[in-house]
Design brief:
alpha/beta, Four Helix Bundle (Hemerythrin (Met), subunit A), Rossmann fold, 434 Repressor (Amino-terminal Domain), 3 domains
């Protein structure tokens, strides 16, 4: 995400290295490069110019704090301006209603139906009882797709396959939600082109009939400036409440994320960060600005970990580690927790300083899958007692997992090394306690 933009901005700040003070001469070249980087990222030229002018006004003559270089000062100024450009704070979703009604809108192929399922997943984690409603009466299999998603995430589903009136379906769904006690109704509508007046009028009628608490516009972030232009057209018709950017994990240049808030004056509320149903993040302008500038996003990384790590399981695992009883069952559990957190490269990019290092790194996403396959090919008693794994058993496990004996041997070796390390640490800890002090902190 934003890899090219991050690299270009980093190059722009290098012009200020070694300078004692930011002034009009030494800042001009850097800001020219910043503007080029933004335009290349498909940010509207006018917005890019206004952005650079605002940074320049704040930068000229700014005193450089002792031990802080002009380059670092410029990064801070650009960061703050990016935060302001993208909306400053995360925008909450309006769920004030019994039930709260959310109307989804957007172009065909923007990922609207899939994101309806992701939003239902997110709301379910907030302890909301959700009803997904299929109001796309035109696209073949649209109803079946939403039904499949509702079953996958475990929420209620409403559809009227024989009814071709989306306004009526939406109204009936809300009545059904009231009867069932659903907290939230998500209305998934057909994708439509902004120039298709008949279809735009239809979604306008749906809005007027159901009076939704929240109208969300879903747009593919990879379409860049075109996404912003489409958002303006939809906003003119619907006056929507917020924007959803999908496919932010793809090869996006970032223009939509940086421009859309400024041009339509509506906040980005969520972003889609992958294919899985839990690949949805609240949009935080300050965190996004930090990631764009290669500063990482530790807060989001910690939040992802908290969402996937079970505290009781973590405490149980800690006890096993202390007793040096960590086995392949525990190893398997850790792999599955890591996989739940998302794409490994994206996770590494959230660690400060790692974004640039990971840019050209060849991360084998399939490695975790192969490790999981090896462990699943073991018998339960073998997972719990790794010392049982003789040559014959390892050959059977390799054949069963579609891997090599060498890979099985390497995994077993890693487990034994981990146990050896924990045994050594436990020994040091005991010695430290006997002396009345910690071996790590003195």
């Amino acid at each position: 995400m934003f890899e090219n933009l991050s690299e270009r901005l980093e190059g722009a700040f290098k012009n200020l290295s070694g300078k004692g003070k930011i002034n009009e001469l030494n800042v001009a070249e850097s800001l020219k490069d910043v503007r080029r980087a933004l335009v290349d990222a498909d940010v509207n030229y006018k917005i890019a110019k206004e952005f650079v002018d605002a940074v320049k006004e704040k930068a000229i003559g700014a005193n450089v704090i002792k031990s802080v270089s002009p380059g670092q000062m410029m990064v801070k100024l650009v960061h703050d301006e990016l935060v302001e450009l993208m909306g400053e704070k995360a925008a909450p979703i309006n769920l004030n209603g019994k039930p709260a009604v959310i109307l989804m809108s957007g172009l065909q192929g923007s990922g609207k139906t899939t994101f309806s399922g992701k939003l239902a997943t997110w709301l379910k984690k907030q302890s909301k009882n959700v009803l997904l409603t299929a109001c796309d009466v035109y696209r073949p299999a649209a109803i079946e797709q939403l039904k499949t998603l509702s079953e996958a995430v475990g929420v209620d589903f409403y559809a009227e396959p024989d009814n071709k009136n989306p306004v009526q379906i939406a109204q009936n769904a809300i009545n059904a939600a009231k009867a069932k006690g659903n907290h939230v109704v998500i209305i998934d509508t057909a994708g439509r082109l902004a120039i298709d007046q008949e279809m735009m009028d239809e979604i306008g009628r749906i809005r007027d009939a159901i009076n939704p608490n929240e109208i969300l516009f879903v747009v593919d972030a990879m379409t860049g400036q075109d996404a912003v232009n489409t958002a303006e057209a939809f906003n003119a018709k619907l006056n929507f409440d917020g924007v959803i950017l999908t496919k932010m994990d793809g090869d996006t240049r970032g223009g939509a994320a940086l421009s859309i808030r400024k041009q339509v004056n509506k906040p980005i509320k969520f972003i889609g960060t992958g294919e899985k149903m839990d690949a949805i993040d609240v949009f935080y302008p300050d965190r996004m600005a930090s990631r764009i500038l290669g500063m990482g996003d530790v807060v989001s990384l910690v939040e992802k970990a908290q969402q996937t790590i079970d505290e009781e399981e973590a405490a149980r695992l800690e006890k096993k580690l202390r007793k040096n009883q960590f086995d392949f069952e525990d190893f398997l559990g850790q792999i599955r927790q890591i996989k739940k957190m998302g794409n490994l490269k994206d996770l590494m990019g959230m660690i400060p300083g790692m974004g640039k290092a990971m840019k050209n790194a060849d991360i084998d996403e399939g490695a975790l899958g192969r490790t999981e396959a090896i462990i699943l090919s073991m018998k339960p008693i073998e997972r719990q007692n790794p010392d049982m794994l003789d040559a014959k058993r390892r050959k059977r496990i390799a054949d069963g997992s579609g891997t090599s004996v060498q890979e099985v041997n390497q995994l077993v070796k890693q487990l034994h090394q981990m146990r050896k390390m924990m045994k050594s640490m436990n020994k040091m800890s005991k010695q430290g306690k006997m002396k009345g002090r910690s071996p790590f902190f003195g």
